[in-house]
Amino acid sequence: MSGIRVRTRKDLRAQRRRRPPRCLGHLTVAPLWPMHGANLGTLLRTCDAVGACMAVPRLPWVPEALARGNTLRNGACVHWVRPMAWLAERQERVLGVELAEEAIRLADLPMAGQPTVIVLGHESTGIPGEALDLLDAVVEIPMIGTGASLNVAVAGSLVLYKLAGFT
């Protein structure tokens, strides 16, 4: 028998960083061209974990997708936006997650020292060209497998954790 003790939920809650409810306002993830509803709920749960908000497009199926996928049911911070207009108004640092020349490798991405928006594109077509022009920088998640990219929930979660300083 090993000496490993699994922490209980009570242990984890006692050790968790204290923070105000909902989002801290420093990170916003923006899956502005979603393809699969299940990814939105999963990403919303990551937002809760790191104290981030989510900006989503005003599409008829999105509210139900968020409700179905968010198993916490805690009323996480969600902003309903018109993608291009919302992006054009951003004063925060705006990072896109995309395969592009001169992209910052995820491992080299520093913790967010200022309010930051993470833009996620469509899973098949990526971030539209007109939106790429509104980004301050692009983050690339290196892969060695045969796929070209990760799904929106996984990619967004990795970048959120890195920017929040949890990795």
From TrEMBL:
Q: Does the keyword Magnesium apply?
A: no
Q: Does the keyword Nucleotide-binding apply?
A: no
Q: Where is the tRNA/rRNA methyltransferase SpoU type domain?
A: 36-161
InterPro entries reported in the protein's UniProt record: Alpha/beta_knot_MTases, rRNA_Methyltransferase, SpoU_MeTrfase, tRNA_m1G_MTases_N
Q: Which residues form a coiled coil?
A: none
| Database matches in Pfam families | SpoU_methylase
A GO term (biological process) for this protein? methylation
Entry GO MF terms: RNA binding; RNA methyltransferase activity
Query: Which key words tag this protein in UniProt?
Result: Methyltransferase, Transferase
In Swiss-Prot or TrEMBL terms, this protein is called: RNA methyltransferase
